[in-house]
Amino acid sequence: MVEIMRRLRDPQTGCPWDIEQDFASIAPYTIEEAYEVADAIERQSWDELRGELGDLLLQSIYHAQMADEAGLFDFEDVAREIGDKMVARHPHVFGSDTTPKTAEQQTADWEAVKAAERAGKAETRTLDGVALGLPALLRALKLQKRAARVGFDWPDTGGVMDKIVEESRELAEAIDSKDTDHIAEEYGDLLFVMANLGRHLGLDPEAALRAANAKFVRRFNAVEDRLQQLGKRPEQSTLEEMDALWDAAKRAERDISD
């Protein structure tokens, strides 16, 4: 794969599209491929997962090839660095530390090692090093976890729920003001607190939203299928009719689950 990528990027004989790409242009594809891996796992589509993992691996090779061309590092360096990191962060497996540990203790030790690594990079603030390029929902979760580690957190879900009520009220006031910047700010605040609620409930907000998306698609498809049986398309229907069909789809799902 490394050789294939080298040939694709060859300035004389490579693919014109591949030659034109740079780190910034490929980064969105890298993110997309990671989500497609997660999607295949969620659907337990193991044949697809094999292919999606290959697509994701290709992204690492692509970035490493561009870095090699720029004299920065190559794929071997990438593999060596992650190998060294895994060994350093698992002294109980690769080192002399034979103390029995729970998964929770290992997580705490892992975070301590990462904190030391951040200190070595002069990342001294609590929130330093949380990547700006992460999807906003995931970054919100990571920021909240970091703050919680130093005690900046609600003790239970009650405080988070109160904050959701407060932010909802502030969003309603912003909507009444018709100030678009204020509306966007308050809407973002509400999304941020909703992510925090997921963390307190032990839920992955991204996974929960993916499940909600899948449910919406499933139920809207049922609405569309029923309309097709009636010889209609959604744009030829009314909101009232589609709402009734949506409720019927919900009831049908509940009946199956019961």
From TrEMBL:
GO terms for molecular function: ATP diphosphatase activity. This is Nucleoside triphosphate pyrophosphohydrolase. Gene3D superfamilies: MazG-like (1.10.287.1080). Residues 21-94, 161-221 form the NTP pyrophosphohydrolase MazG-like domain. InterPro entries: MazG-like_dom, NTP-PPase_MazG-like_C, NTP-PPase_MazG-like_N, NTP_PyrPHydrolase_MazG. Its EC number is 3.6.1.8. It catalyses: ATP + H2O = AMP + diphosphate + H(+). It comes from Brevirhabdus pacifica. Belongs to the nucleoside triphosphate pyrophosphohydrolase family. It is an enzyme of class 3 (hydrolase). Coiled coil: none annotated. Pfam families: MazG. One of its GO terms (biological process) is dATP catabolic process.
